[in-house]
Every structure is written in structure tokens, then in C-alpha cells.
Design brief:
Blueprint: H1 3-11, E1 24-25, E2 27-28, E3 40-43, E4 46-50, H2 53-60, H3 64-67, E5 73-83, E6 89-95, H4 127-146, E7 154-158, H5 172-180, H6 182-191, E8 195-201, E9 210-217, H7 228-239, H8 242-246, E10 248-257, E11 262-266, H9 268-273, H10 276-286, H11 298-313, E12 319-321, E13 324-330, H12 347-360, E14 382-387, E15 391-393, H13 409-430
Antiparallel strand pairs: 1-6, 2-3, 3-4, 4-8, 5-6, 5-8, 7-11, 9-10, 9-13, 10-11, 12-15, 13-14
Helix pairs in contact: 11-13
Length: 431
């Protein structure tokens, strides 16, 4: 285990006893707005997700020019289900002690997704009740699947103005991901109770009320290894959405409008139905405070997207099939300006203020951020990152039968259209 991971584990120890001692109890990650894999909270600045060999390989072999656009990779942990002192089943992460080369989950599902899902259980039930629960849950899932299109795809919550942070609980999509995989997790834990998870930077940790936009990028979503059925399904989704026309579609969103006190969620099913006009309207909602467009957010987002486009145009043979782009900013209203401190001697006070400003310039991008929070919190005003690389390929992967030439034209096409749309929003907001 690397010194960095050892320090990370030490800082997140679970204060339990027995088998849990020395481990970290994982919790649901409340700001997941898209995807279908459970994302878990490892610590304040770290999340984890089931290890997929291809994605793990991507993070380990990232060229520096792409690394600045992805979450920081922090290593691999071994995860198991355990019972705490009260009889609750929890998911506990431990340092990885096995052979570093043996980092693959051996039992993928039909779609290639590892069978590692998590939801903290209530107290263990007798076996008879568990069988009844299994049957009930199975019926519930079938009904949920059949009625999926009838469910609310856009949700609005009114929060009391003031301290909104304690009022924000689980994003509904995050809960749905956990609930859908609860039954599968129960069954798999009986046969195999050791799983590998990768640790990644929690991109939302700097923000009080994270506003998160998940955009599925590219004109093609299926990987080279997709089955014919999967390929046809993904092609159909692209053709019926904005993916085919502009190379980007909404995959999930949560935004807080501080003026109205409204918290808005959109899921991927709504995103698939959006026309180009509807997609533009959703972007307006995301960058709004409930009354006006927050145009101060657009310039740093656009600069980031243009930098990303230039890098991807130069990335030979990379394909980011089914990858997403996250845009994040803080929806919390800015704190009231601090009253000026009494001067203790004029020039010395000014020098201290200058030093504070210099410290705040180091952002989440590993350098000087172009857009900073003027409240003095030190957080980047916006963050833009690429995520989800389970179907990424490039020439260096070696075992892949298909080797693509040039840059990822579908992804770059989506970036260019996103840049154009946001540029139009910025221009109109200046009128």
C-alpha cells in the first residue's frame, strides 16, 4: 500500500471493534445524478466505485494532458460486507493486501458491470422473512421496471431559505441506484464477500450545495466489445436523443435556485426525451439562480471546455465511448461580506491580505483556476471533469481487437456544440 493511500485510510478509520477495526465504513454518495453503478462515500474528499478492469487501467495509464481533466485516482481497496455491533450489515473497505496484478472482479454481469453494489441494511432478518423480502423486492423491481416511463423524471423541492445544507439529503437518482441493486447485492454476498473498489477524488466536496450536471458525450455510446443487442440498444438511444444531432445529451442534473429556494432534479430518462430546444432550456435552468442566468459561471466553463477540446484533438486513438462530462458549481448563496478587520498598522495588514489571496489561487485543477469564488472560500467557481471510462479504448491497451485512428470525433463534436450553445447563452446574457 502506498504511503498516500495509507494516510488516507488512517484519516478515515471506522471507530468500531472486532472485524471492522482498521476498516472504513462506506456510505452512499448523495450527489450522484447519473450512471447506473453505485457510487459510495469513502471520506470527505474521496468516493469509491466498483472496480472495472478497463476503467482501472485507464486511470493508471492516463497521460498528463488528460489527467488534469479527470478526477484524481487514489488507489484500490478491498471491500466486504460485515455485521456491526447492532447487527446491521455494512460495507467496509480495507487496504488491498493481495497481489497488485490480481485486481479484477471475476464475476461480471452480462453487461460487463461488476456485481459490487451497496446499501446499508437494516438489522438482519430470520431466513424465512428474508425469503419473503426477496420475493416482495423482486415483484417491486418488476413493477418499477414496467412503470419506469411513468415515473417523475423531473422533481422539484422547496427548501426553507437560510441554511439549506442540512435539508439536502439523497439525490433521488442516487437512492434509485442503491435500491435497484439491493437484491443483487444480497444474493452475491452469500457467495463472494471480497470486492475491489477504486478510490477517486470527490469532486463535490468543496461546495456547500453542489449543483451537478452530468452530460453523456459523443455520438456513439457502445464499446467495441458490446453485444449486438447492446449495440442496437445504444444506437437507438442516440438516434432518439440529442446525442446523434449534437453529440451530447443530459444524463442527470441537480441544481439549487437560491432566489426561489427550489431544488431541481432531472434524471436520464428525461434527458433522452429532450429536443435541442429542451436541452438548451435545461442548460439555462442549470446555470440559473431561479431568477437570472449566472453568467459569471459561463466564462470559466467555456475556457475549460476549449482547453479540453484542444487536448482531445491531439489524443491519438483514444475513444471515450459512454463517458460523461461533469459540470459542478456551488448553488449556495454567497455569505454576507465580512466586516473589515481593524488595521494594526496599515501596510502590514495589506501584506497579509495579499498572502491570503495567493493561497486561494491553487484550485482543484492543480494550478491557477480561471474562475474563482469571490467569497474567499478558496473553492473553484466551477469544475469541469471527464468521468466514467468503462468502455474507453486506445492503442496502448494492447489486447483490443479494434484500434482507432485520430481523435475521438464524436466526443469532440459534442464539445464543440456545447461550446457553441454556452457561448450563445453568454452573449444573450450580456444583451
Amino acid at each position: 500500500m502506498s504511503p498516500a493511500l495509507e494516510a488516507l485510510m488512517e484519516g478515515c478509520r471506522y471507530p468500531g471493534k472486532g472485524a471492522m477495526k482498521g476498516g472504513v465504513m462506506l456510505e452512499p454518495f448523495v450527489h450522484q445524478v447519473g450512471g447506473h453503478s453505485c457510487v459510495l462515500r469513502f471520506g470527505e474528499q474521496t468516493i469509491c466505485k466498483p472496480l472495472i478492469p478497463r476503467e482501472h487501467q485507464f486511470y493508471k495509464s492516463l497521460p498528463p494532458e488528460i489527467r488534469r481533466f479527470t478526477p484524481q485516482y487514489k488507489g484500490v481497496v478491498s471491500v466486504s460486507f460485515e455485521e456491526d455491533e447492532e447487527g446491521n450489515l455494512c460495507l467496509i473497505a480495507y487496504p488491498l493486501h493481495s497481489d497488485p496484478s490480481d485486481i479484477e472482479n471475476k464475476e461480471p454481469l452480462a453487461d460487463g458491470e461488476p456485481k459490487n453494489k451497496f446499501l446499508k441494511w437494516a438489522k438482519k432478518k430470520p431466513s424465512g422473512l428474508m425469503e419473503n423480502e426477496r420475493a416482495r423486492q423482486s415483484r417491486k423491481e418488476e413493477k418499477s421496471k414496467s412503470n419506469r416511463e411513468d415515473k417523475a423524471e423531473v422533481l422539484y423541492y422547496s427548501l426553507e431559505k437560510g441554511n439549506v445544507v442540512p435539508q439536502i439529503k439523497h439525490n433521488p437518482w442516487s437512492l434509485q441506484c442503491h435500491q435497484q441493486h439491493l437484491q443483487r447485492m444480497k444474493e452475491n454476498s452469500k457467495h463472494r464477500n471480497q470486492h475491489k473498489f477504486i478510490l477517486l477524488e470527490n469532486l463535490t466536496w468543496r461546495y456547500r450545495v453542489p449543483c451537478v450536471l452530468d452530460l453523456k458525450m459523443g455520438t456513439r455510446q457502445h464499446g467495441d466489445d458490446a453485444t449486438e443487442e447492446k449495440k442496437a440498444n445504444q444506437i437507438r438511444k442516440c438516434q432518439q436523443s440529442t446525442s446523434s444531432s449534437i453529440g451530447v445529451r443530459l444524463c442527470g442534473m441537480q441544481v439549487y435556485h437560491s432566489v426561489t429556494g427550489q431544488l431541481i432534479f432531472m434524471n436520464k430518462y428525461h434527458g433522452r426525451k429532450l429536443s435541442l430546444a429542451g436541452f438548451k432550456e435545461a442548460l439555462c435552468q442549470f446555470f440559473s439562480d431561479g431568477r437570472v442566468l449566472r453568467r459569471e459561471l459561463l466564462s470559466p466553463v467555456l475556457q475549460r471546455l476549449k482547453e479540453m477540446r484542444a487536448v482531445l484533438e491531439a489524443c491519438e486513438s483514444y475513444r471515450f465511448f459512454s463517458s460523461s462530462l461533469l459540470i459542478i458549481y456551488d448553488g449556495a448563496p454567497p455569505p454576507a461580506p465580512a466586516r473589515p478587520r481593524p488595521s494594526r498598522g496599515g501596510e502590514e495588514e495589506d501584506e497579509e491580505d495579499d498572502e491570503d489571496e495567493d493561497d486561494e489561487e491553487e484550485g482543484a485543477y492543480g494550478g491557477r483556476s480561471q474562475g474563482r469564488d469571490s467569497s474567499g472560500s478558496g473553492s473553484p467557481l466551477v469544475d469541469v471533469r471527464m468521468i466514467d471510462f468503462a468502455h474507453t479504448t486506445c492503442r496502448d491497451y494492447g489486447e483490443d481487437a479494434v484500434v482507432h485512428e485520430g481523435g475521438d470525433s464524436g466526443y469532440i463534436f459534442g464539445l464543440q456544440n456545447l461550446i457553441s450553445i454556452l457561448s450563445q447563452l453568454e452573449e444573450h446574457s450580456n444583451d
